[in-house]
Write a structure and sequence with these properties.
magnesium, 374 residues, Squalene/phytoene_synthase_CS, 19 helices, steroid metabolism, two-stranded parallel ribbon, lipid metabolism, metal-binding, mainly alpha
Length: 374
């Protein structure tokens, strides 16, 4: 399936092969699990079960920062799960949240009453995003500065740190419209969608698809306003592992918004960036010039797809024009125009053969190791 998706993007297939044969370790070095205590091994086990994407970038951080961020992330995910569960009464939930810090020192404490299936209607979108994501950005930034991995300004500028979290959270909420509807959750802001339909679920009806896309474009335009802060924040980072940790999720989010913009598929099924596209972003987003080039590329994609009839079109063009002023290079990160059809065919054939060989070799090696262990 990934091969088919990459047919029109030979550089992505090439990067998939590079990533598989060693490129991954340049961006995300393998962590030494044997040196961890049993408690930390348990933490990383839960981390990988909770979020595969964040687990990868967290484990690539340097030194003790890795363990601190791992625990920080798990604690906040636990708090977030508790706060989001609408099956828990307010009378019971508030004391749990207030006393949660004390439970961290009780090894046997468990909470087994979470159901997370009741419908949740979000009434205060900005405040919600700040508490579940903005505060994460602020907390991480303070960790980076306290460890002296980064300058004090990184931890002190809470506005930029807040924007880092808000941009990721808004992107996830926008992308996951249909999944959240199917699970009985509603995260799109009522003050926006209520101007288009009476109920948020109405966007999934075919007769409302035009209104749905207009609301989608308005929300994406709102999220794009955080990109100037993202650029400023990333430009201040000096530690390579911290830069990768921060930059990779941001460029993934930018690519996701570009895929969602003016796209009816958001209301019909899952919208995800290609695996080869994700790998290419991970391998490229390791320095500020490359990140700016990636941002420019996706901003141009959105700009050229703005419908003149869209109610938010002028605002979308305006924020993209503002983003362009932040010293973005006037070129794409990767130029595809010079590839000839013969060259493309040769590259794709070579890549397909290489991929098949590596997959087979990997499976044989794994079988051999397991046989040896037995």
């Amino acid at each position: 399936m990934e091969f088919v998706k990459c047919l029109g993007h030979p550089e992505e297939f090439y990067n998939l092969v590079r990533f598989r044969i060693g490129g991954k370790r340049k961006v995300m070095p393998k962590m030494d699990q044997d040196s961890l205590s049993s408690s930390l091994k348990t933490c990383y086990k839960y981390l990988n079960q909770t979020s595969r994407s964040f687990a990868a970038v967290i484990q690539a951080l340097d030194g003790e920062m890795r363990n601190a961020v791992c625990i920080f992330y798990l604690v906040l995910r636990a708090l977030d799960t508790l706060e989001d569960d609408m099956t828990i009464s307010v009378e019971k939930k508030v004391p749990l949240l207030h006393n949660f810090h004390s439970f961290l020192y009780q090894p046997d404490w468990r909470f087994m009453e979470s159901k997370e299936k009741d419908r949740q209607v979000l009434e205060d979108f900005p405040t919600y995003c700040h508490h579940v994501a903005g505060l994460v950005g602020i907390g991480l930034s303070r960790l980076f500065s306290a460890s002296e991995f980064e300058d004090p300004l990184v931890g002190e500028d809470t506005e930029r740190a807040n924007s880092m979290g808000l941009f990721l959270q808004k992107t996830n909420i926008i992308r996951d419209y249909l999944e959240d509807q199917q699970e009985g959750r509603e995260f799109w802001p009522q003050e926006v969608w209520s101007r288009y339909v009476k109920k948020l679920g109405d966007f999934a009806k075919p007769e409302n698809i035009d209104l749905a896309v207009q609301c989608l474009n308005e929300l994406i335009t709102n999220a794009l306003h955080h990109i100037p802060d993202v650029i400023t924040y990333l430009s201040r980072l000096r530690n390579q592992s911290v830069f990768n940790f921060c930059a990779i999720p941001q460029v993934m989010a930018i690519a996701t918004l570009a895929a969602c913009y003016n796209n009816q598929q958001v209301f019909k099924g899952a919208v995800k960036i290609r695996k080869g596209q994700a790998v290419t972003l991970m391998m490229d987003a390791t320095n500020m010039p490359a990140v700016k080039a990636i941002i420019y590329q996706y901003m141009e994609e959105i700009y050229h797809r703005i419908p003149d009839s869209d109610p938010s079109s002028s605002k979308t063009r305006q924020i993209i024009s503002t983003i362009r002023t932040q010293n973005l290079p006037n070129c794409q990160l990767i130029s595809r125009s010079h590839y000839s059809p013969i060259y493309l065919s040769f590259v794709m054939l070579l890549a397909a053969l290489s991929w098949q060989y590596l997959t087979t070799l990997s499976q044989v090696t794994e079988d051999y190791v397991q046989t040896g262990e037995h």
